[in-house]
Amino acid sequence: MADINRVILVGRLTRDAELKYTNSGLAVCKFSLAINRRRKNGDQWVDEANFFDVVLMGRSGEAIHRYLQKGKQVGVEGELRQSRWEQDGQSRSRVEIFATNVQLLGGGGGGRSGGSYDSDTGPEPQSHAEEENMGGFEDDVPF
After folding, report:
1. What is the CATH number of the domain that holds 109?
2. d(CA 28, CA 137)
């Protein structure tokens, strides 16, 4: 059986996205997500935040970085990658999510919601009718 390395997250940006370029001109968009979860601690429910660093490479990073503002809710699909290095004689490591697809969701950041940015194809076109329908559901929802 093949190994699987897939992650899907929905959370809010903790800061505005950064866009930098490698020496060869490849765009690298970096941002951080906060994912909230509730857990029970004794009789009390406690909110706990987890933070994840995300990297989006190439044209899709260039296209979406201006919409990735602090507080904006996004969905991220990608894979985990671990970097290892040595600093001051100690081994260090970091796990980042290398995104293959970033979905702009509603809320926060004041930007327009909706739209998808795939690392392979770039921005996904969205029709005017889709934009108008984003706020509601059709009456024939199957659940």
Report:
1. 2.40.50.140
2. 36
